[in-house]
Amino acid sequence: MNIYPLPQEVHDALDYINSTLSRCGNDNLVKTSMHYHKTIKNSTASLDTLHQYALLAMQAQQHVAAEVLLRHATDIAPHSSELQHNRGIALRQLGRQTDAIECFEKALQITPYMADAYIGVAEIYQEQKIAKRLIEWLEHAVTYCPNNANLLVLLGEAIKNTGQSQQAIDYFRKALKLSPDNAYIHQTLAHTKHFTTHDADVEAMEAFHVQHNLTTDQKIRLGFSLGKVYEDLKDYRKSFFYYKNANDEKRHTSEYNHEDSRMLFESIQTVFDRKLFEKYQSVGNDSRCPIFILGMPRSGTTLVEQMLASHPEVHGAGELLIIQNMVSHLWQMPAVNGALFPHGIDRFPMNIFTAAGQHYIQMLRQLTGNHTVPRITDKMPHNFLFLGMIKLFLPHAKVLHCRRDPVDTCFSIYKHLFTGSHDYAYNLSELGRYYRMYDHLMTHWHEVLPGFICDIEHEKLVENPEEQLQLILKFCELPWNDACLNYYESGNIALTASSVQVKRPVYKDSLQYWRRYEKFLGSLLDELYPL
User: Fold this and answer.
1) Predicted TM-score of the model (pTM)
2) What is the pLDDT of residues 313-322, one digit of tens each?
3) The last residue of a domain, from among 111, 136, 168
């Protein structure tokens, strides 16, 4: 085994990884790091040790340190497709999309049939919402890897997100032939197709669902899928049966504690008061580029973004984690002395908020790959938790708050299996209580930040889109453009659960939709009654 000298930068990264892992609480990661640490002698290490340490760092979300190690490793072994691929993953996590693509392409030059490298590039194009390039890339990828179900699913999803549902379904069925026990593919098919009969696709899902050796994840995905199937078939009792079973299974996997959420919401309202904003009224970056679209999930945020993104002066960036990651990073700094967000904010120097605003703009431009368009939307719904930080970072940003009937919002959430952390969503009573806290928080933001937020009522937008769009564009200081009304013709990618719906004109059949299930929603209605 070859041993290589370690430059100081790599030494520092290894020390940082060891320090981080020792505090992470994951005994397996700690044990593995101790094993590899023993192999480092006299400031030298094997290529395998560097690689394994980098993988450990990535598991611990320490992507800066991982990239340092992988950069050194690829300098040593530039013809390793695995190292190039993994460095691409680390770079992507750091927002260095162009560099990541370069690494993935190097991996493919070495190993042309490496499906994971094709997927790495595709996911970047997907994030950047470059529809034509994404589809062309995936079509190229499946010529090299025609029997890779994951690539076929990605291609189907890319096509679905441009509104071509039937062609997407064909790709999902091809993927299912290769991987019939993949519950995610069944789920994707179910949420793309509109079911009118109890057909072969339904029979396949039901036969899969009654197997005795299913994993929890398979039970959950198939339950949400069959709930959607019977919703289409208008058998609402059976539909709710599957939705409830899936939600119950998902809730059992979660350690959600409502009291923790209550304390967070109350702390935010206590810390971010009028006095704080008066104290920091001169801080922040002066950019007017960002338009934040927020609110509860399933409240119409995707529709608003698609309308705005059809404007020639606006790029729709989708759901970005930049603000959340920045807040997390700030509260790891020594200045807050171990306090949890939002406590300790008064310990930061004033110039940190201006620097943070500049960092946000840089990340926004970098992640979208769009450096010239004047305005960019960030449609992360739960940014409502961080509106105070947004005001401090970017005081001239525009904030659009999407509101929808509370019961329609909550029940739509309940019918959806989220990819991120939405642990409040899988029990009707907890969901109703969470909604009330959100509603109270938004009232607080309006009180302490008058004029900073524009409320958009989903029902009004659906009933009179032109009138509401005029108000939205005026608030965002954008001129009228007819393309916003014809958003469904734009070809923009929508990456959320609403991607099928927003590829057709505004429709009203979702209004008061919850009444089809009213007899099953007693616990939710009890919680929302005060509203």
Assistant:
1) 0.87
2) 999 999 998 9
3) 111
